[in-house]
Amino acid sequence: MMFAHPTALRQKGVLSMNKRNIDYIARYNARKYYQRVDDKLTTKQLALEHNIAVPELIGIIAEQHQIADIPVIISQQSGFVIKPAKGSGGKGILVITNVDQGRYFKASGDEITGNEIARHVSNILSGLFSLGGKPDVAIIEGLILFDPVFDGYSHEGVPDIRLIVFKGYPIMGMLRLSTHASDGKANLHQGAVGVGLNITNGKGLHAVQFDKPIEHHPDTGKNLIDIQVPDWDQLLHTASMAYEMANMGYLGTDMVLDREKGPLLLELNARPGLAIQIANAQGLLPRLRLIEQLKGPTPPVAQRVDYAKKHFSNYADF
Amino acid sequence: MQTRTPFYALVAALIILGIGASIYRGIEHDVPFVPGEQLKSWSIDAKVSFRAKGEPVEVSFSLPSDPAFEILVENTTSPGYGLSIQDTDQGRRAVWSVREAYGNQQLYYKVTLIPTGLQRNPTEQEAPKVRPVSWPDTEADVAQQVLADAWERSANNLSFANQLMQLISEQNRSQNISLLLSNYSPNSLFIKLLKEQKIPARIVHGLHLEDQRRRQQLEPYVEVFSQGHWHFFDVKRNKQTRPNDLLLWEREDSSVLDVVGGSKSQVNFSMLQESRSALSTAIDMMDPKSFDFSLYQLPLEEQSLFKGILLIPIGVLVVVFLRVIIGIKTSGTFMPVLIALAFIQTSLVTGLVGFLLIVACGLMIRSYLSHLNLLLISRISAVIIVVIGIIGVFTLLSYKFGLSEGLTITFFPMIILAWTIERMSILWEEEGVKEVVVQGGGSLFVATIAYLAMSSVWVQHWVFNFLGMHAVILGLVLLMGQYTGYRLLELKRFKPLAGDKQ
């Protein structure tokens, strides 16, 4: 049979798109704070105020005439990332991993000309990648030197860690590994692999690509369940701190592990996707409900992380 | 968690209001629930003719007043005569007058009637007064005997009248009746006997309706009053039921035709059965002066505009349903509705082929434009102009090849097409051909479903003629906005989660 029975999904506590939109996003995420997560520049500034580490900011291109300055801005870099401040779904992110005598190369090895970079930035400014086509700003960031622990797990891209933070509690996590199919991007709908992570210790649980369970990385063949994310406690703390920073009850935090700087907050998402449930082979609803029934003021970050580690240790508990 | 009772009350109110308004419109204004319903109507010509004597002439002619038939149109032809339609104690009458007339005169009255299906006469509060009747000495005793005879065999006024009618119209009637009938016609005898018994009764004049009959006359019948209603009696045929094809022309116990200043007056009827659209009949019957929120009062051009506009809620409903309940991805939220509106003009297959051709050509040209490093606004504008060019070329080509379907391609909304091409092109660059096919196919699928819904004769009939349906649609859209259950495609997506029980 192609379709699951709704009761089977309900028993598993699978959160549906409509329920997420109505009962969680609409209820816990106030409109006025959306700018904090939708504009990556604002997110970055807020993160710095809250002592949350973020990738290095190289430059901002806000006007078309500044495009001419790009070669100067990036002249000292061996690699960089250009992204729209208000982009969604990973759209418009250009990653240059190698600069060689004025020639630019993507992670895949394809060359990108200076003209193409200029056009890309121009597109960003025109609002091609932003919601509703509003004029946007291009951010140039330093390349992340990703931690070698993930060598062999990720193809041509930075693996990032997505944690769902509900009212300040990290409730579910997954590691997103880019693949050849996803063109080095870490978005699951583009073909990246999602590995569900045990909140208690950051160990792999299940893996999924294109919404289908898999065991081995499609490009490298490494067993995905064996994965162990380092710096796990700090990742949980950083994610949990994003709650105070963004003031959003239902939040997706995207982080990367830098070889030198440790966990860096990449971006926040007010509408985190649902595929994380497939990666964890576990519905979000039981965890959401457990947090929802907690009374009293929000405890500090450390307490929240402990609570999450204690209660969300074994996904088969509920 | 706030209570959702007011919300559900609002939705319920909208739906009940909408359905109620629609039912009211159907029943009260006779707007047919079924599209294309035909109605039988009768077109009746009454020709009044008489010989004028060169004096002032006044002709008073009773006009039909029958609850079983509703007047749709009426008009008169009477050259040289002044005309007034009067509501008098004797019912509605047409009064023609002229200062001087000679020779044969002909006046025409033409009426179109719609059967209403109401056979029962309306209730009247007061019983009409009955004037005492007097009998010549020779008849008085006989009449009393007949009355006593019928009285014995009856229980109430109605059955008394029935018995009386049978006594009068029996094949081998009694001597008493025969004696009385030598001086009276059956109808007038019937009425006189009833009045003797203080039962109100009157002569009415009816016309037997039969298609394509000419030179017909009114026939007299009797109505007897009992328990607040007038009841029909056909003494001649000894029947108490009124045939459906009988039109009561004159019911107020007065003459059908009065002519002052003329002689040899007579009236002839000819009739024709016609069938006409029930909808246009209902519109014709509406009182344009009454306060009624109806689009029929608009000029025709605006009406046809609204016919299109009022389809959009249906398209929107389809989109909401397919996105919220089914979970189909589309490129641009309501782009499918606009494409579906274009399909209505072009027909489905032509529309699909045309859409694919334009988008495919547009994508090719757009891929060239993307090398030119243009600002977004100029690029979109360029795509719009190119789309117009493509449409022009296809229209010309199909004209040259004699494909008249191709000419309808101009109905596509060009700005929407340009944005579609732009979005698809970005999608292609960003996420690959697969996503273009998924979203483009999804959009076309939704557009096709929306088109099928919007082009349905039933839907078009209902959304335009029963505006209450839009309240229902609004209610449904609001309701779906609260749907937190799984989308159909999510059941497939999350299938791996349901499978393993641990």
Overview of the structural elements:
The complex is a heterodimer of chains A (318) and B (502). Chain A has helices at residues 6-12, 17-28, 34-38, 40-49, 70-73, 114-126, 232-246, 275-280, 285-292, 301-311, and strands at 57-61, 80-84, 94-100, 103-106, 111-112, 138-142, 160-166, 169-177, 193-197, 204-209, 212-214, 250-258, 262-269. Chain A is an alpha+beta fold and 318 residues long. In chain A, the strands form 2 sheets. Chain A has a 7-stranded antiparallel β-sheet. In chain A, strands 1-6-2-3-4-5 form a 6-stranded antiparallel β-sheet, covered by helices on one side. In chain A, α7 (232-246) packs across α10. The model of chain A has no long low-confidence stretch (mean pLDDT 84). Chain B is built from 17 helices and 13 strands. Chain B has a domain at 303-493. By secondary structure, chain B is an alpha+beta fold. In chain B, the strands form 3 sheets. Chain B has a 5-stranded antiparallel β-sheet. In chain B, strands 4-5-2-12 form a 4-stranded antiparallel β-sheet, with no helix packed on it. Chain B has helices spanning 5-28, 137-152, 157-169, 175-181, 186-196, 278-285, 300-309, 312-326, 335-346, 348-369, 376-400, 414-431, 433-455, 457-465, 468-480, 488-493, 495-499, and strands spanning 38-53, 57-62, 69-77, 82-88, 91-98, 102-115, 201-208, 213-216, 219-226, 229-233, 246-250, 257-260, 262-277. In chain B, α8 crosses α9 (335-346). The model of chain B has no long low-confidence stretch (mean pLDDT 82). Chain A binds chain B through residues 2-6, 8-9, 12, 14, 16-19, 22-23, 64, 91-92, 115, 118-119, 122-123, 126-128, 133, 189-190, 208, 211-213, 277-278, 281-283, 316, and chain B through 324, 327, 370, 373, 375-377, 426, 430-431, 481-488, 490-500, 502.
